[in-house]
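Why this split exists: single-chain examples teach little about how molecules sit against one another. For that reason, every record in the complexes split bundles all components of an assembly together and asks for one structure covering all of them. Below is a record exactly as it appears in the raw files.
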Amino acid sequence: MDAAAKPRTTRIQVQKRELILDAALDVFSTNGFRGSTIDQIADAAGMSKPNLLYYFKSKEDIHTTLIERLLETWLAPLHEIDDIGDPMTELRAYIRRKLEMARDYPRESRLFANEILQGAPRIMPLLEDQLKSLVDEKAHIIKGWMRDGKIAQTDPRHLIFAIWATTQHYADFDVQVRAVLGPDRGGDGRFDDAARFLEQLFLEGLRP
Amino acid sequence: MDAAAKPRTTRIQVQKRELILDAALDVFSTNGFRGSTIDQIADAAGMSKPNLLYYFKSKEDIHTTLIERLLETWLAPLHEIDDIGDPMTELRAYIRRKLEMARDYPRESRLFANEILQGAPRIMPLLEDQLKSLVDEKAHIIKGWMRDGKIAQTDPRHLIFAIWATTQHYADFDVQVRAVLGPDRGGDGRFDDAARFLEQLFLEGLRP
DNA sequence: CTAACGTTTGTCCAATCGGTCAAAAATTGC
DNA sequence: GCAATTTTTGACCGATTGGACAAACGTTAG
């Protein structure tokens, strides 16, 4: 009577899939897609390769799942921007949230960077639809702030790019940042220094 | 009498090596090191794989040569900063030069980004010695400007990071930038818009 | 012409890759 | 307990990879 396949989902299946995705995030974010092997991921997840392929049908399947899940949380801070609050406060909060994400989820940032760097072969449609319309919407809000004289007149889209670039830099180029700062300021304090600097740069730079 | 191997360098050797390096820059910058194959590079250079290996002894040899050569030209704009000119003019010129490099040498930028993203396994020593001391030197100059009240007081190293991040973003994340801007402003004009925005952001943001 | 040298390629190899398969082991429902 | 089902793995396969090698080709100097 039920022609459709039953949606079997054991508790153990959910756990193992989660375990694999976490291991894969480690491997993919440091080696890129083509630079990563199923064996590496299986090793990191503490299981054999055929066992891993029992939960995901291919290497690309893991990667796709990871990227799709990532995009939601990655754009959450941008979603939170709205035009009811004070513009400067909103922008400061956005910059802070983005920097916190670079600090707390560097693997996700690098996975995303790897994908974009190589021409976004697997998420190009998402960028053109989902991301573009989201940026369009928020750019419209920011443009409104500029018209009201709340912040300086500039290109809102390039402002968003600049916030992305400066915050994600601390995740994607982490080794370079630490190498340049040296052992003294390359420790845990670098994110506090970055937060202070970025707030000053953007808030002073956007003062109407 | 001459115990050392003779420094054979035919004119054709120089040409072919240059041809290979250019092809390799194409391939490496879009696929990363592990994602690129010698066959791809040989194809792009219009020769057979054994022929390519006659000029470079391994895949890593090509990559190393490319990276070392890149680092010189890549840091040239930073080298040019000195403390004899007007601080604001110097900074504006530096930002403009870096943005021009992102526009004219996106392959080099992506090659560098790929290397750093994956933990800089092949150039870590260069970052800790060459790059660090260069940044230290320029940070000292900038600090001097701040003490003289020529520009606002901030962390000079994070200022340099911000300039790197925002300018290189237009090379490394090019597909995302174009996807978000759409066909209208995603064309050739995007670098002019970026230049206008970045000048305003940094110059206003750093006004003493 | 020919010997010497630089250049090019077809062929081959061992290692690694993504993925399959059948059979063993563990778990679950009764 | 036992049978059905889910989970795990060793062994294997074809394709691709980086690289070696010797033979062929081209060029030049005498």
